[in-house]
UniProtKB/TrEMBL annotation:
Enzyme class: transferase
Name of the protein: Tagatose-6-phosphate kinase
Biological role: Catalyzes the ATP-dependent phosphorylation of fructose-l-phosphate to fructose-l,6-bisphosphate.
Pathway: Carbohydrate metabolism; D-tagatose 6-phosphate degradation; D-glyceraldehyde 3-phosphate and glycerone phosphate from D-tagatose 6-phosphate: step 1/2
Catalytic activity of the protein: D-tagatofuranose 6-phosphate + ATP = D-tagatofuranose 1,6-bisphosphate + ADP + H(+); beta-D-fructose 1-phosphate + ATP = beta-D-fructose 1,6-bisphosphate + ADP + H(+)
Species this chain originates from: Peribacillus loiseleuriae
Lineage of the organism: Bacteria, Bacillati, Bacillota, Bacilli, Bacillales
Family matches, as NCBIfam families: 1-PFK, pfkB
Length: 309
């Protein structure tokens, strides 16, 4: 079974405003609410490509109930721990450009922390766990490291989609996949990553530090996949970007879901990019038919001759 962990879920409140103006009353052209948080997005996309998962994490209050009901409506299995404060609402303002205001989210007690660890301890060899997003406020910042160690020792594939020290610290536990975007990759090495060659160079360093597979996404500029002995690059399909929220999560779901079905790394890389782009081109997360339509536009090639560094 695949488990997704969202420590700090959200209702994503998508607000569309024509020519947003600060210091003035703006009226929405359209607004929608979706369950959000990176792990939840991964579970929703997995579901759309017919791959089962169980969504774990913390939910509370009326906002938590909205998410629970929405996921139930999509027939997604959940096993959330209830917290007393309301789950946060994240505002995604779409106008000439996109602005996000993400809430702080409920604090997690030490008892609730123990409860989620206990649930994760029940996972077995052959399971997959996807740790996505930032650790909730006042939870131990080494949560992902603790879980990666526990799961890695049991033969559970661990996928981590986070940034900064939380990401660096899991590498020694050999995660199956990490997926920094090029900005996050640059931050890790205190540099800037602009080109495919730079993404390959620094992605390879993350493999040397322990990651089994690294996908570096570069928004509309392509992506790089690094493995223990090969580096691949791929283009992204062309289209009209209407929503970047959840594109990275869709990429993770596309990769993991396809790998579970086929065991084929390059096919999974292609579907991961098609899933990310299908979400970028849709108002909500991607649908299976959109992914299938885009996948034929993606060409993967191996970077031969090595990367200097
Ligand atoms: N302009 C674009 N054109 C086509 N596809 C895109 C574009 N921007 C993003 N994508 C798709 O979304 C994937 C993830 O995008 P990005 O590199 O921005 O990751 P991210 O920062 O994790 O995403 P998110 O916006 O979810 O935080 C890309 O690999 C690509 O498939
Ligand atoms: O505040 P975090 O946890 O860093 O990010 C949360 C979030 O922006 O990430 C998802 C998109 O990836 C959204 O559904 C959600 O609102």
């Amino acid at each position: 079974m695949i488990y997704t962990v969202t420590l700090n879920p959200s209702i994503d409140y998508i607000v569309e405003v024509d020519q947003f103006k600060v210091n003035q009353l703006n009226r929405t052209k359209r607004d929608t609410k979706f369950p959000g948080g990176k792990g939840i997005n991964v579970s929703r996309v997995l579901n759309r490509i017919n791959v089962d998962s169980i969504a774990l994490g913390f939910l509370g209050g009326f906002t938590g109930s909205f998410i629970q009901d929405f996921l139930k409506g999509e027939q997604i299995q959940t096993d959330f721990i209830e917290v007393s404060e309301d789950t946060r609402i994240n505002v995604k303002l779409k106008s000439d450009s996109e602005t996000e205001i993400n809430g702080l989210g409920p604090s997690i007690s030490s008892l609730q922390y123990e409860q989620i660890l206990e649930k994760i301890k029940q996972l077995k060899s052959g399971d997959t766990i996807i740790l996505a997003g930032n650790v909730a406020p006042n939870m131990p910042s080494d949560f992902y490291e603790t879980v990666s160690k526990e799961c890695g020792n049991k033969g559970i594939d661990v996928i981590v989609d986070t940034s900064g020290p939380s990401l660096l610290n899991v590498l020694k536990h050999k995660p199956f996949l990490i997926k920094p975007n090029h900005h996050e990759l640059g931050e890790i090495f205190e540099t800037e990553v602009h080109t495919i060659e730079e993404a390959a160079l620094y992605g390879k360093k993350l493999v040397a530090l322990g990651a089994k597979h690294v996908i570096v996404s570069m928004a509309g500029d392509g992506a790089v996949l690094c493995t223990s002995d090969k580096i691949y690059t791929a283009n992204v399909p062309k289209g009209n970007v209407v929503n970047s929220v959840g594109a990275g999560d869709s990429l993770v779901a596309g990769f993991v879901g396809t790998y579970k079905k086929t065991g084929n790394l390059l096919e999974s890389f292609k579907f991961s990019i098609a899933s990310g782009s299908a979400t970028a081109f849709s108002a909500d997360l991607c649908q299976k038919a959109d992914i299938e339509r885009l996948v034929s536009q993606i060409e993967v090639s191996e970077i031969t001759g090595g990367v200097k560094g």
